[in-house]
Design a protein that fits this description.
The chain is mainly alpha-helical. About 70% of the residues lie in helices and about 0% in strands.
Length: about 130
């Protein structure tokens, strides 16, 4: 089955986000964010740079599987969208800042679209069987 256009667009957004996370992991200034990536995940014992690298590589792996229409890519993206959507919603209720609103809305849109096109991930190629 041909990859849906939305799957490609979503994958490219996540690849771009991963590159930005890797860039900021190198050039990160600790005082710039009031709430760091580690704190968002509730693991403030992990250094901020390390957490950014972990999330970036996870995001790249997820985008690869999603773009290739792999079942595991589908499930990773569903899990990632639910987790980030939930975290953004919690942060939105505590601090009404635009990035959290945007992250929450993007997570919901990605979740709805991914569920809408789920048959692209679960279709098996027709087999050529001879009787």
């Amino acid at each position: 089955m041909k990859r849906p256009l939305g799957v490609s667009i979503i994958s490219y957004f996540y690849i771009f986000g991963s590159i930005v996370l890797l860039y900021t992991a190198i050039f990160y200034q600790a005082g710039a964010d009031t709430i760091g990536m580690s704190e968002r995940f509730g693991v403030s014992i992990v250094p901020e740079r390390t957490m950014r690298v972990i999330v970036a590589f996870f995001s790249l792996l997820m985008a690869y599987g999603y773009m290739r229409l792999k079942k595991w890519g589908f499930w990773l993206l569903i899990t990632y969208s639910v987790l980030f959507g939930f975290i953004s919603f919690i942060l939105l209720t505590n601090e009404p800042q635009q990035p959290f609103i945007g992250n929450f809305v993007f997570s919901i849109i990605v979740l709805i679209y991914t569920i809408y096109v789920k048959e692209a991930f679960f279709k098996t190629a027709p087999t050529n069987q001879s009787i």
